[in-house]
Amino acid sequence: MKTFKKILLLLIYAFFLSLFALFLWKPYLLNVLKYRTPNAETYKIFPQEVSHKSDSAFHFVRGAKPRNDLDTLHVQDGNNRLIPLKTYLKNGQINAFIVIRNDSVLYERYDKGYCDSTLSTMFSGAKSMISIMIGQALADGSIKSLNDKVTRYIPELKSNPAFEQITLKNLLDMKSGLEFQDALGGIIKAFFSDEAKYYYTDDMQAQLMKVKLVNKPGTVWVYKSIDPILLGWVLKKASGKSVAKYFESHVWKQIGAEYNSTWGLDQVNGLTNTASRFQVTAIDLAKIGRLYLNKGRYNGNQVVPENWVNQSINIGNETPASAKGWQKSAHHYLWWIPQEGDHGDYAAEGMLGQRLYIDPKTNTIIVQFADHGAGNYPYRKISRYLSGLPFSYPKS
Fold this sequence. Notes:
- The protein has a 6-stranded mixed sheet with strand order 2-6-5-16-15-14, with helices on both faces. Strands 1-8-9-7 form a 4-stranded antiparallel sheet.
- It is globular and about 65 Å long.
- The protein has helices spanning 2-25, 28-35, 85-91, 125-140, 150-153, 168-172, 187-191, 194-200, 204-208, 226-239, 243-250, 282-293, 306-313, 379-386, and strands spanning 48-51, 61-62, 74-76, 82-84, 94-101, 104-110, 120-121, 261-264, 278-280, 297-298, 301-302, 329-332, 335-338, 346-350, 354-359, 364-370.
- It is α+β, with helices and mostly antiparallel strands.
């Protein structure tokens, strides 16, 4: 019995010693263990940099008669069930849902204390924001060409041969070829995933310096956080401004933003997580949608080059690298662009149901913040319904 107890004690000691060594080796795992899947408030554990609001705010018109008939409009959820939109919002734990058409707010619903001015994280919607800024940096000459090697702007990466042939276009297309493990496949895999590592680490630069190349750049599309984070680092080096300050001067103050937005850093004065830590109010996020509906213009000023907007939201003759959902959304220039049916709409999308939906055909913008999301793609049906246009889901 004494021998058994000694062995048990040794095993327990070895277990805790191994845990200590693991967390010493990878300290970010403590945050993974503590916070697990991030929520709309998790960004607050990291340093933030502010993009200050516009000096003159733009205001959407609030219609005298809200379109409450949308409550009963039947849309498909993630299980392909047709349910009333009101039920869809409840099931998806949706905190903010705003529908805007022709610059008028037609429908809005809020939960859990949210309102149109509640700051919330967009998660991967941040990727579309860095796409916008890359287009502007090309226009102002900070970045010379998408065909430039990433090492031209980040010479520190020359010490890692994985980066030798990677271009900015490869990063924008998510075809860098860099190794990245997603969080799918169970608790253990999620715990040790690169998805968790790049969200919770306090030193993204150190992690990027060690990453390996597993595919030839430009050949294989893999959805990952590394590529947009690298684009944020490129922007910082090329422009001489932090991402938040560049966004403030080139976007946020230019489009009538009413509230400040924020960007999460890995550490004070460190790198910006341009993959998943952009915080914004719902009403101001809609102004990004309005900017793109207007081909990059605001009050007669060309904020984003029109050709960049067109490049970003049209894949042309390119073969789609992805086909998400019944609408077969392709990921292109860090936006999601449906390829099925009478398309033309597009979206910035983040996990747990964060959405900025834009439909030029009907001049509609939809913003959604959620704790979970109810799945599927109800936005096109809503926009076509409000415009009196026919719509039907494809037969499964």
